[in-house]
Structures are given as structure tokens and as C-alpha cells.
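Reopening: C-alpha cells for the N-(5'-phosphopyridoxyl)-D-alanine complex, inputs below.
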Amino acid sequence: MNKILINDSIMERKKMIDIEDRGYQFGDGIYEVIGVYQGKFFMLDEHLERLERSAREIQLSLPSSISEIKENLMELVQVNNLQEGVIYLQVSRGVAERWHYFPSSDTKPVLVAYTKLEETMREEEDNGATAVLTEDIRWLRCDIKTLNLLPNVLAKQKAVEHKAVEAIFYRGDVVTEASASNVFIVKNNEVLTHPANHYILNGITRRKVLSLCDDLNINLQEKAFTVKDLLEADEVFVTATKLDVVPIIKVDQQTIGTGSPGRTTKKILHAFRASIK
Ligand code: PDD
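Re-run output (same inputs, fresh job):
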């Protein structure tokens, strides 16, 4: 588990952050968290496509091609013999004298990736979990997976302080997503989730759930819903890499539906589990 990828070399893990790395100083970079189940990547191509998109949106050129990055990540999982966990991958705009504007074009972006053991949240998946509500104070490009996560950090801390697994964001009346996951509600057998625009990250797990709903003939709409809709929903669940599909049975003090994981959520969860086998 000790090997890491730096640009295109796999090496022993060591302390290596340069104080003038722009990721460190400005959060000037992007990242991905990619699930590994039984030694195999889950939707790796989709994660790399999203990485490429994030890079483009912040005018960052990746240090290697997507196919080279893919090969290196596969090798890293192999040499570290990762069975259940994630790969964390980030690319910063590189190391340069600290000025806000972009550094000169010969500054090489820094790509770092490492593996991390992580089990799925089996207990929460089976029995449900709680969430808190918190105002969405993030910028208006939440579709980019940037290193700037301070509002998400503060929100998740609030959740932890309330013994909840997630903090669900609202902007005005509208529920956007959660601190590190996407949010779905079920009302009258219809599943709703926020459209994939600049207010949310278009989660890879979210996309899988959309296609599973299609396969299962579950009626799903990518349509914004309000905090009131959330609290009055029959079912609520959140999705993210390695968190997978977690039913939410209480939000703040409000019990959701019957107070246990609902029928539609369980159907989706079972289909999801089958898809990672
Ligand atoms: N977070 N929304 C936000 C704000 C997220 O940070 C994440 C994932 C998601 C779900 O995306 P995906 O299904 O592609 O993992 C939605 C990762 C896991 C993290 O920051 O650790």
C-alpha cells in the first residue's frame, strides 16, 4: 500500500509537498476518487473523462494523456495489491512562485495518486443513516471537481457533530446535493434528483443509479426539489464512490417515510451491489 504515483513514476511514498505547490497554496487543481471493488476499478473511464473535463474547465493541461494515466493507475492498484478501497488522484497547476495568476507555461502540473483501503458502509446501507441540512455556500461551479473543499469540509464536520453521515446542501429552497454525495428522493414511486448543472457534481455513482433506474423501469426525473419535498419524501438516499447507495431515514429531527430504508431505495441498492460483483 506504500507505493504512490507521481506524474508518470510509481515510487515509495515519501513526504514531498512543496510549499509553493499551487494545489497546496490556492487549491488550484482538481481530483478524483475512484472506487476499487475486488481489485477492479469501478467506472474508471467515466472518472477519467470527468478528470479531463475538470482540467479543461480550469484551463489546466494534464501532465500525461488519459490513456497513460489509466495504465499508471492500473499498475498502482496492482503493485499495492488493493482489493477494496479507492484511488485518490489529484492534479495541481504545479510548483511556482506564489502569484495568483497562472504560472508560466513551462510550469509542469503535478499529478499525485495513492491507494487507500476503504470498505463500503454496509451497516448504513442496510439500516439507513441520518443527515443534517446545511446552507450551500459553495461557488457556482460545483460541477468541477476542484481541490477547494472548505465548504464541504465545514458541512461534513457539522454532520459528524450531529452523528449524521451526511450534510445535505440547500440553496434558497432547493436541495442541491450533499457535502460529498448526490441526493435522491422518492415520492409516489417517482425518483427525483437535481439536474447535472453547475450547482452539483455529476457523480459517477449518480450516473450509475440513473442507468439502473432505467433498467429497473423505475420512473426517474432529473428535476430540482425543495427542502419541503425532501422532508416530506417517502424515501431519501445519497450516492457516492464507496459510500455507494445509503438510505437516509432522518433529516435533522424529521423522520423520512416509515423511518426505515424504503422499497425503491432497496431495489436500487441491490441492483447496484449486483453491478459491482
Ligand atoms: N466525493 N458530490 C460531491 C460534492 C462529491 O464530493 C462527491 C464525491 C459526489 C459523488 O460523486 P461520485 O459518485 O463520482 O463519487 C457528489 C468524493 C467521493 C470525495 O470527495 O471523497
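The chain has two domains: 3-117, 122-275. The CA atoms of residues 104 and 157 lie 37 Å apart. Marking as resolved unless the reporter disagrees.
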